[in-house]
TrEMBL record:
This is Tetratricopeptide repeat protein. It comes from the Bacteria. InterPro entries: C-type_cytochrome_biogenesis, TPR-like_helical_dom_sf, TPR_CcmH_CycH, TPR_rpt. It comes from Pontixanthobacter rizhaonensis. Coiled coil: none annotated. Pfam families: TPR_19, TPR_CcmH_CycH.
Length: 287
């Protein structure tokens, strides 16, 4: 069960697909969009996959998992070839289940995601959880280790993935050090910003302040920091690591349309690093 407990934070990204204009309209209002405004934007166009996915993400973040699943299912009506929408649906269905830790409806969604994109990290993670729940602990660890090997250094889910492997190994008396070491072989170190290109993150004071305010205000603060990072990169665009940081932050905030634009701007400013930037973006689920 350790893997299920960790599941909620294991794969920290969401992807919008389709026309983001309705979402953008909501986002331009002062402050972060509300559930009501996101729902209104989605209901304007039942086939706008992006707007329904944004609504699903907001429901998921607020713990309304059944509503999140409904929104993701509607998003799929607008784009049924998007693997991340299917894996998001699976995750929402799993979290909405009060009795079954791996409901068939969730498995079906994860398998659909894998059929569309065998690299989908969320689906791979949870299908390994299924193995763990069925008693195939070694098989689950092997699958998670394979996912770790394919995970870009610094990806939002890396720390939780490592924690899952360690905890499941500990609970079931399975040595995992060699599996983790093998997964790490050949993986580049997490990118470090050079002194000349460094873009500072939040200070200790900012972090302390964020912990003392409401979730809505925390999101507002996070958005402000990301906008500041965006502005610094536009002033100093020759910084591939900074652009990767921005894409990751946009995806974490549920702003895949802006992450996609950041990728375009990053490639335009850093053509020699285009392949790496595209590879990092794909791993983050940037559309």
């Amino acid at each position: 069960m350790a893997a299920v407990v960790l599941a909620g934070g294991a794969i920290g990204y969401r992807v919008l697909s389709g026309d983001p204009s309705e979402v953008a309209e909501v986002a331009t209002a002062e402050g972060p969009p509300t559930l009501e405004s996101l729902r209104a934007a989605a209901e304007k166009d039942p086939l706008n996959a992006g707007a329904w996915q944004e609504l699903g993400f907001a429901y998921y973040e607020s713990g309304q998992f059944e509503d999140a699943a409904k929104a993701y299912r509607q998003a799929i009506e607008g784009d049924d070839t998007n693997a991340v929408l299917w894996s998001s649906l699976g995750e929402a269905r799993l979290m909405a289940s009060e009795s079954d830790p791996m409901p068939n409806a969730a498995v079906t969604a994860f398998e659909k995601a894998i059929g569309l994109d065998p690299t989908d990290a969320r689906a791979r993670y949870f299908l390994a959880v299924k193995k763990d729940l069925e008693g195939d602990h070694q098989g689950a660890i092997n699958d998670w280790a394979a996912l770790l090997k394919d995970t870009p250094p610094g990806a939002p889910w890396e720390a939780n993935l490592r924690q899952t492997i360690v905890q499941v190994g500990k609970i079931n008396n399975i040595a995992v050090d060699s599996a983790i070491a093998k997964a790490d072989e050949g993986r580049p170190a997490a990118p470090q910003l050079t002194a000349g290109n460094a873009i500072p993150g939040p200070s200790q004071e900012q972090i302390a302040a964020a912990s003392a305010i409401s979730p809505t205000d925390q999101r507002g603060m996070a958005e402000g920091m990301v906008e500041s990072l965006d502005g610094k990169l536009r002033a100093n665009p020759n910084n591939p690591d900074g652009w990767v940081m921005l894409m990751r932050s946009r995806m974490t905030l549920g702003q895949p349309d802006k992450a996609s634009q950041a990728l375009k701007d990053a490639v335009a400013a850093n053509p020699d690093d285009a392949e790496r930037l595209k590879r990092e973006a794909a791993a983050l689920g940037v559309p």
